[in-house]
Each structure stands twice: as C-alpha cells, then as structure tokens.
Amino acid sequence: MRLKEGIFKKLQMVSTASLTSELLKLGFKNTFMEGVVPVTTDSHLVGYAFTLRYIPAREDLDFEVEYDNWKNPQRVAVETIEKSNVLVIDSRSETSAASFGQILCTRLKYKEAAGLVTDGALRDTPAIKELDFPTYARSAHGTTSSVLHHPVDFQVPIACGKVMVQPGDIIVGDNEGIVVIPIHVAEEVADKCYERDLLEGWIQKKVEAGASIRGVYPPDESTLAEYKAWRNKMD
Questions:
Q1: What pTM was computed for the model?
Q2: Which of 119, 138, 147, 232 could disulfide-pair with 97, CB 3.0 to 4.6 Å?
Q3: How far apart are CA 168 and CA 49, in angstroms?
Q4: Could you tell me the CATH superfamily of domain 29-181?
Q5: Phi, psi at residue 181, to the nearest 5°?
Q6: Looking at 3-7, 67-71, 86-90, 104-108, which range is the least confident one?
Q7: At residue 120, does pLDDT exceed 90?
Q8: Where exactly are the structural domains of the chain?
Q9: Rounded Cα distance, 163 and 152, in Å
C-alpha cells in the first residue's frame, strides 16, 4: 500500500505530538519510540518502514571486522532498500556497541532512503551529523556492531524503542522523536493532524496575545466559530 502524495506532504508538516494524540483516539496507545532521538537538530522524516532485526552476537558467528556484503543481512538490507523507505533497526535498545555507521548511512542517502532509525547506538556520529540525512538513535558508541549484534533478517515485524514496527508502516520523525503509524490509518491520521495543528497554532497565537485558556484551550463553541471564520479565509 502506498500513500497519496498529498498525505505525505501533510505528514511532513505535522508534529509527532499531534500524531500520538490522534492515534490514541483510534485506540493506538504505544506508538512513540522510547529514547530514540534525532542525531541532528531540525530533523524531519516521513517514509515506509524497512525493518532490520538484530539478535545478540555469539563468538563463533560474529566479531567480524570485514563484513560479507553478499550474505550479511545488514549489508543485503542496505542494498535492497528502496527510495522513500526508512531503515528501522531492532537493536534491542542495546547501546554498548554501534548498530550502524557513516559509510552505510551514506549508501542509504545515495539510494534516496528517507532516513535511519535505530534503538541502539551509532558510530561515526560527528560525520553522520554532517551528512544531511535524517538519522535517529539512542546514543553514540565507537565499537563495531558485531561485538554486540548479529543481523538475522530483514523486512519482518520488529520492536524498536519498545514499539512494534511492521514492514510498510509509516515512520514520522521530528525534533522530538519517532512515531510509528499503521499504514491503514495513516491517511485518516494525517488529515486530522493537519487540521489539529492548524487549530492549535491559531490557539497558541491567541494565548501569546494574552487570551485565557478558559474557553480557548480546549475551544468552546464561540472560539471554534471564530477559528472556522479564520480557517475559511485560508481556503
């Protein structure tokens, strides 16, 4: 399933805070990733989840320094990912070694992936900050991934930041963090959030101008009528 371009544009304009509120109204309580934050400020991403799953490393299988680009699931995933996909890595929230690094991020950028999200650590973070590629993680660590992580498969359901991620889910990131949206509700949530953010932006300006929150936040019928008149002028 793919979203209409207009829906993608709305998701690029709304906040993760609004998205979590609208998802909660639909019964989705656990959608915001815990501890996963942008590597750079002014980060924003929207894309389809392309998942990669790590399990704990074991000495007879791991401790690689030179990885097999033809067989290693991490490397195969990097070469398989498509435009507008977000690589989402299940690192089990382990941060004692990296889960990804600069060169692989560069490859994702070249392939026009929408971004990278991991609930583990990243290495080469100073270079990644200069890459102009939306990247989210828990922390930084200089040690290579094979010390801690064994990539086992990709494009399977995973957990990331204690949230379920299904391949093809919509991933939205802003300066606060990452929200996962089940794709079958993404259009409804995008439309509602777009209107919600317009309303709350208008309310914010009223409060900045000295208005009481009583009758304004949340808006009563009189305030809503005033807002609708303002909103109609925009259309």
A1: 0.93
A2: 147
A3: 5
A4: Ribonuclease E inhibitor RraA/RraA-like (3.50.30.40)
A5: -115, 120
A6: 67-71
A7: yes
A8: 29-181, 187-234
A9: 19
